[in-house]
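User: Can you fold this complex?
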Amino acid sequence: MSTIGTIGEISRTGARTNRAAQLIGVRLYGLLLILVLLSLWELSARLGWVVSAYWPPVTAILRAAVGELAGGDMLDALASTLRRAAIGYIVGSVVGVVLGILLGKSRVLRLALLPLIEIIRPIPTPAVIPPLILFLGVDDALKIFIVSLASFFPVFTNTISGVAAIDDTLIQTARTFRIGWLRTLVSVVLPATLPAVTAGLRTATSLTLVVAVLAEMIAGSSGMGYYLVQMQYALRPDLMYAAVLYLAIVGYCLNRAFIVLEARFVPWIGKT
Amino acid sequence: MSERLGFEHVTKVYESAGADFVAFDDITLEASPSEFLAIVGPSGCGKSTLLKMAAGLIPPTKGKVQLGGNTVSAPPPGVIYLFQQYAKSLFAWRTVIDNVMFPLEGAPRSQRAELRARCEDYLRQVGLSGFENSYPWQLSGGMQQRVAIARALAADPQVLLLDEPFSAVDALTRMELQTLVLQLWERRKFTAILVTHDVEEAIFLADRVAVLSARPTSLKEIIDVGLPRPRDQLATREDPRFLKLRHHLTTSLLAKGSGHVVAA
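Assistant: Here's the predicted assembly.
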């Protein structure tokens, strides 16, 4: 998901209006491949190249996807997944930025907390779901916690290394103009760390959907993860693939939105 | 307005594992109000450290830095440090005008418009009118250092400390910036202390040039430049006295060992 967005962005930065037409042509190539593959899928199902109850034609999947728009469980499932992912993402990111800056700035806190964090970090997030179920149940609390945990680490590690990488010249500049520590933190350290924070947020964005869906597959009775598993049991491959399609669309849109917001709010990334 | 700034027997020792490392030992040197003092020395002799002490950014191990009648222990008001690495000193997330406004942001909101007009004037003085809303990284190196200079002016410096401010730009831009700093200095009459390894730059700009030896660093000599002002990039540099000073200082810097100076 993120790779597609990034490549698109790179080819676009070099573009000027007189090259717009050429650019659309370039983009069409990529789109063409997708269309060819989808046509092959369609034909393979229609013409019986693949004989399987789990291989519906693309048009059947699209029909199911559109049908869900009119009413069905899927959009509700998607909404509850997104709600949990969003809450978990925000909680994990805020804690990650705050702790990253505190630990980046304070040696004492670093010595006290970093070993603990470094021990927790390598644990694959899904591995802690079963024990956590015992404490948090199978509903929102578990999933929001798991998503926060997953988004916390990339944000935290990027923030702390971003703080560490701030050039001393920048801090001394604030000192020579006799700027107090609080204003130095807010108007120098924070913006100087923002490119690193953004990189962490971006990694976290793609992780949150993954972890949210995964957690829903393992535990609970709502959300896209649960829905996918249910449709698998119900032998409804069309709805199953339609759910995957919706997740792909959402993931793609999130990534595009991230690129747009990044260019708008952190335009100096890579410029210093 | 300007201040007298003096180093009194300052020594800097860095403690490293096992052996202490003496950056420089017992340096006494003073810049009079409105004087342009240059400090030259081989690289690694601790010139920048000396200047950072004057700015209150690094404390001396022994001795003290005196500003007016007071001992410097923290960055004093009116003493502004101009960094060699302008790109790292400017705030990439702020526009040019907001960079220049930075030292003034503690002021009450009611004065904002007036201060902004003043900062626009500083930008005009450094030749950057029309670039207010650009970002530093959209400008050339020389223009970025001009932004840093305008920002220093905004802080109303009584003492301006220049840490090899022109060493990262091309030769032509360097001459333009030297002339600019001289014009601003003649207009504002702040005390200026310049650290450089460029002998010609030191002579061209300064009233006096202090020469530091290689490590262990000590003050080798102080020479009066005595060239007429205003100085000119061609006339001054072609003046026989300029060439004689350049010869003397270069010999002094190239001479091995401390203390012994071959006369020009």
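Residues 130 and 239 of chain B are 37 Å apart (CA to CA). The interface with chain A takes residues 52, 55-57, 75, 77, 79-81, 83, 85, 87-89, 91-93, 102-103, 105-106, 135, 137, 155 of chain B (CB under 8 Å).
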